[in-house]
Amino acid sequence: MPARKSATVVVLHAQSGDTARPTGMAEVEAVADVRYVTENGLVEALPGADVLLVWNFRASTLPGAWPVADMLRWVHAASAGVNHVLTPEVVASDVVVTNSRGVFDEPMAEYVLAMTLALAKDLPTTLNRQRERRWHHRETERIGGKKALVAGTGPIGRAIGRKLAAAGMTVTGLGRTARTTDPDLGEVLPTSSLSEALPDMDWVVLAAPLTDETRGMIDAKALAAMKPTARLVNVGRGPLVVQEDLVAALGAGALAGAALDVFVDEPLPGSSPLWEMPNVIVSPHMSGDVVGWRSELVALFHDNLTRYLDGEPLRNVVDKARGYVREKGSP
């Protein structure tokens, strides 16, 4: 085993909120010099650092600080998505990028199943009627036997596929590479086949990364291709959906409903009509955030830091040119 080397780690965190300075970092601090900074301190902290832990997934200052990153060798995102760290400079460099794959997969799949059941069983109306002390008998829907398209064939999409299939739904995947059989997603269609696939689907779940190919994939044309009884669940990225087109489709009754955990602008502005639509469930980007998630993120980073110090291969290495985690056998 190669001799362990020292490391200087910069932790970029928010001033407050979910991405404030991480706790439970004692094991990391025991093996590395750790510099905790918010965005306004990044330029001062990066010189001489070889590792950057981006704990704040809304950070936008990396491009401006990049010229002073003279020793940087590895950037780790404390999130599944990596769009905020894949700047052109990072992509063109030799810096390795990793993400926090594995922490959010099952929680997000549980969220999708919960939202699917909530919309099918009309739970929002039930809760509203309860607050009104109003007895309103209704019939609801089954999800068993319904068809679901899961856009995104990474670990989160796969976990979603397994959960929905276990609930009796027929699952089809949508991703970069088509294949006739997949253990988690049934048949996987190429992203280019989205328009052809939509008319047959009862549920459309977005768990895809945000790329040039997927940005705005659900627009007016895609929404028009969906059944008026279909519903949309988005746990991927807000810009996967053209939000104005979605609002128009929901308002016109061209779509039965939506459960949205991510938005183009976050927090979702109070002026957005999505807040008051009776067929929409809005949640504040929390589908993967379960009790203990921060500790899991720190544990994953510590494991990868140990690998880095020992000269071993890192986990969850991102293909920077494509923006997804490389897996064995992936093209």
UniProtKB/TrEMBL annotation:
Keywords: NAD, Oxidoreductase. Gene3D superfamilies: NAD(P)-binding Rossmann-like Domain. The keyword Oxidoreductase applies. PROSITE patterns: D_2_HYDROXYACID_DH_3 (PS00671). InterPro entries: D-isomer_2_OHA_DH_cat_dom, D-isomer_DH_CS, D-isomer_DH_NAD-bd, NAD(P)-bd_dom_sf. Residues 113-287 form the D-isomer specific 2-hydroxyacid dehydrogenase NAD-binding domain. GO terms for molecular function: NAD binding; oxidoreductase activity, acting on the CH-OH group of donors, NAD or NADP as acceptor. Belongs to the D-isomer specific 2-hydroxyacid dehydrogenase family. It comes from Actinophytocola algeriensis. This is Phosphoglycerate dehydrogenase-like enzyme. The keyword Glycoprotein does not apply. It comes from the Bacteria. Transmembrane segments: none annotated. Residues 26-318 form the D-isomer specific 2-hydroxyacid dehydrogenase catalytic domain.
